[in-house]
TrEMBL record:
GO terms for molecular function: structural constituent of myelin sheath. The lineage of its organism: Eukaryota, Metazoa, Chordata, Craniata, Vertebrata. SMART domains: PLP (SM00002). This is Proteolipid protein 1a. GO terms for biological process: axon development; central nervous system myelination. Keywords: Membrane, Transmembrane, Transmembrane helix. InterPro entries: Myelin_PLP. GO terms for cellular component: myelin sheath; plasma membrane. It comes from Poecilia latipinna. The chain crosses the membrane at residues 70-92, 113-137, 204-224. Pfam families: Myelin_PLP (PF01275).
């Protein structure tokens, strides 16, 4: 067998769908975990600087942020290992097995393992859909804040109207109702929106939201490719046809 035929045989056994999904999952999780972790740190700094003067007003929020940061560490480790396992399962269920051993065989254990990955990935995609929706909440908060600041910049000639435009962190559950000041209004709010900390935090949350969406797409791709592979293993394996996803 020549070098070209050998290369074609190797390339023919690559699970391209699983490979693309793995790359998407790695990039999505990196965005979500890295940007989300830093965005939480910057959020605590913004709340401490502009919305709360007393430590007791935001101590609960600080503990919640710290808890979510630990969760992010766990998510990063879990998805790294799980994506590698899914990629390995994709290689297992491709025609590389047939090309290597001469006949395509799938054991009962292999089919059981493939079906387990399908169920786990499907459940994980459903759970991650909730994470994706949850990650939109801080983006919504900062979007409203940015829109209010834009309105203030337009109405700079009417100070009375400007002072009535506020963003209240207590309304979003970030602070208790007795927190002081708890909100920012008028030019104070406009100055906050112009700070580097605010702009960076907003962009980080948008990046984390994008990363969550990419991860969801990767999980859906895994689910589709794994389901296809399992179907071929189950129904076409005896004919020597190997899946390629």
């Amino acid at each position: 067998m020549g070098c070209y035929d050998c290369c074609m045989r190797c390339l023919g056994g690559v699970p391209y769908c699983s490979l693309v999904a793995t790359l998407l999952c790695f990039s999505g999780i990196a965005l979500f975990c890295g940007c989300g972790h830093q965005a939480l740190t910057e959020t605590e700094r913004l709340i401490e600087t502009y919305f709360a003067r007393n430590l007791q007003d935001y101590i609960t929020l600080a503990y919640i942020i710290q808890y979510f940061q630990y969760v992010i560490y766990g998510l990063a480790s879990f998805f790294f290992l799980y994506c590698i396992a899914l990629l390995a399962e994709g290689f297992y269920t491709t025609s590389a097995a047939k090309q290597t051993f001469g006949e395509f065989r799938s054991t009962m254990c292999g089919r059981c393992l493939s079906s387990s990955f399908i169920v786990m990935t499907y459940l994980l995609a459903v759970l991650w859909l909730l994470v994706f929706a949850f990650s939109a909440l801080p983006v919504y908060f900062f979007y409203n804040m940015d829109a209010t600041c834009s309105t203030i910049d337009v109405l700079t000639e009417t100070p009375a109207s400007i002072n009535q435009l506020c963003v209240d962190a207590r309304q979003y559950g970030l602070l208790p109702w007795n927190a002081v000041p708890g909100k920012a209004c008028g030019m104070t709010l406009s100055n906050i929106c112009k700070t580097r900390e605010y702009q960076m935090t907003y962009n980080l949350y948008v990046a984390a939201f994008t990363g969550a969406g990419i991860t969801l797409l990767a999980l859906l791709t895994y689910t589709v490719s794994s389901t296809y592979n399992f179907a071929v293993l189950r129904y076409l394996g005896r004919k020597g046809i190997g899946p390629r996803c």
